[in-house]
Amino acid sequence: MKLIIFSQYFYPFKGGIQRLIKSRIDCLEKSKLKKTLLISSEPYKNYNKELRQIKINYTKNRLQQFFSTFLSILKLVYKENYIQIECASIYPSGIASAIIKFFSRKKIRLIIYLHGDEILKSQNNYCYLVLIKFTCIFCNELISNSNFIKKFFKSKINKNTKINIINPIPSRNFIKKSNLKKNKNYTLLSVCRLVDKKNLINQIYSFEKIYLKYSKKYRKLKYIICGSGPEYDKIKKIIKSRNLGKVVKIYNNVNDSKLIQFYKSSDIFLMTTLTNFKKNSIEGFGISALEASLFGMTCILPKNSGSEDLKKFGGVKFFVDGNSLKQIENSILYALKICKNKKKINSSIKGANKLIYNSIKKYKSKF
Fold it and tell me: Which residues pair with 111 in a beta bridge?
């Protein structure tokens, strides 16, 4: 049996879908890695010749995305008798694989990873809803990234669908880290796609109020934002217009080694994603929050989101309504008081490692 893992695009910080695929590949043993094929628009450089990869051109055109995906999978299925296809998302690879499975006589085991944004899109597009329901009929297994997304899918798409949960994990670059040493400075960190739903502008405003009032109490207080996306120029202008350039830094397309250094030197992780069903906005899990926990950070996360799965694994987690600047500010202030506590740092690291261990076991059982 051959395993095909399909990710439509694969750039730094393009979202949790791509980071999920990196960690999924990391969980494969070498013997199974040789039977695996990754199809994406950006090669995964960590494996050299161990992992076979096919590069396809990424396009923003939805129809072109679908047909390039469909043809890529069709060619591979034609050559194999028994194949397992794991799709990073329902569209385009999940739907394309389901259609091929419907018409093909080959043995195809289809696994699809669920994401909240796709479920929301189906509520605003009847055609897309029908395609998702069709895909579910031919899917052997649906995997949700959190309890929240599992419940959300069942309430909106099909309450009788069997869904397994695997919390996505960081890639092996983050797990194999050196000993952690926090400095005496106070640093807030956000790692995400630079898009409106990530609520970065409200987070900057909240940080600004605290900085103006408490910068003398908390030594060298600063806020670092890492990511790429359409909001990059807008965020830079806001930082400049409010004269925050010395204390709020934004970094575009940060690689893993640089990101690890930011995690090591930071104290508070800030991710207050907005939930807005009309704008297809939801936080399915937040893999960067797990990365932050792995480095002992205190996390401020969104209410009513997949991030709430992190609660049961220890560490300090605050859950806020991203529309409320007051809630964000109060959580930051409380986090500043406790973020240097060694017991709480160790609790966060221990809990994150436990979650990662559980997820690795589940990933390995799939192939």
Answer: 86, 141
